[in-house]
Amino acid sequence: MSNATATAKSGSTDNTSVLLLLLKLRTFIALIVVTLFFALMAPNFVSVANAIIISKHVAINAILAIGITYVILTGGIDLSVGSIVGLTGMVAGGLLAHGLQLPMLGIIIYPNVLEVVCIALLVGTAIGAINGLLVTKLGVAPFIATLGTLYVARGAALLLSGGATFSNLVGKEELGNQGYPIIGSGNVLGIPVSIVILVVLALVAAYVAQRTPFGRKVYAVGGNERAAALSGVRVDRIKIAVYMISGFCAAVVGLIVSSQLVASHPASGETFELNAIAAAVLGGTSLSGGRGLIGGTIIGAFVIGVLSDGLVMMGVSEFWQMVIKGLVIIAAVVLDQLQRRLAASNG
């Protein structure tokens, strides 16, 4: 091989490596670009108050996206999380407003806020377990299984109140159930509680995914389910666990949303699943499974959040906002495919 040919191939390899690096950092680059764009184009975009508002919006999407990322890593999908948000918010609101009614015993139990939170989290996790069982034990495709539970959970949320809203969820001193609004509107050392919850969940989720045997098994199932099973991984247990994680995260969001509003509405969480999936995909999580990072998902959620709030501040029509978000998601998938092809060709 001549020196000229070797030099040309070396140059081509270097260019491919640079392009691969840029593609791997695409979400972070996108976040910088959209932030700079809105900083120049939208008045008052760069301010502490607006940064806090954006972060609170992002926290809701990012917490949902953390759970969905685990599901997608196994090659699944969860469309039910938005409805779980609505249902768990209604469960919490109903318990605070009307208590747990036991007609057979003729009593009403009013749980305190901690008990209400635990019950709501158990409900969300249980629905996640049902999703996992439908997928693993009954062989239902994840898309269909979670689409079904989407409708069931939304219907259950409506049935809890007959379609009405549980309002004024501040509790009563004599019932010992005060303090619920702190979850969505409280602060810890000046930082909103919802952001603190996001940081804690993100750190735990990232550690579990990258540093524990469970995390490695999640990636193994998504990378090659048959090979994982042959190597001793209990695939069904892993799949059920990730759907439970997704349901738990959705319940957390349900609590945050209802406490922020100091009210529970059965329609809460509608289309939340779409933004959460978009955040995971933007963050580099492959829809085919086996590849993705929690950190990337969080950055993806910030891209969605900055884009949404920035467009609102610029006065862009809600219809155009939907178009722009859709184009961004399509671009993310296209770039993900390009990255895979380049990585494969680069060996």
Automatic annotation (TrEMBL):
<keyword id="KW-1003">Cell membrane</keyword>
<keyword id="KW-0813">Transport</keyword>
<dbReference type="GO" id="GO:0022857">
    <property type="term" value="F:transmembrane transporter activity"/>
</dbReference>
<feature type="transmembrane region" description="Helical">
    <location>
        <begin position="240"/>
        <end position="262"/>
    </location>
</feature>
<feature type="transmembrane region" description="Helical">
    <location>
        <begin position="27"/>
        <end position="46"/>
    </location>
</feature>
<protein>
    <submittedName>
        <fullName>ABC transporter permease</fullName>
    </submittedName>
</protein>
<feature type="transmembrane region" description="Helical">
    <location>
        <begin position="140"/>
        <end position="166"/>
    </location>
</feature>
<dbReference type="InterPro" id="IPR001851">
    <property type="entry name" value="ABC_transp_permease"/>
</dbReference>
<feature type="transmembrane region" description="Helical">
    <location>
        <begin position="112"/>
        <end position="134"/>
    </location>
</feature>
<keyword id="KW-0812">Transmembrane</keyword>
<feature type="transmembrane region" description="Helical">
    <location>
        <begin position="187"/>
        <end position="209"/>
    </location>
</feature>
<dbReference type="Pfam" id="PF02653">
    <property type="entry name" value="BPD_transp_2"/>
</dbReference>
<keyword id="KW-0472">Membrane</keyword>
<feature type="transmembrane region" description="Helical">
    <location>
        <begin position="274"/>
        <end position="307"/>
    </location>
</feature>
<keyword id="KW-0997">Cell inner membrane</keyword>
<feature type="transmembrane region" description="Helical">
    <location>
        <begin position="83"/>
        <end position="100"/>
    </location>
</feature>
<dbReference type="GO" id="GO:0005886">
    <property type="term" value="C:plasma membrane"/>
</dbReference>
<keyword id="KW-1133">Transmembrane helix</keyword>
<feature type="transmembrane region" description="Helical">
    <location>
        <begin position="58"/>
        <end position="77"/>
    </location>
</feature>
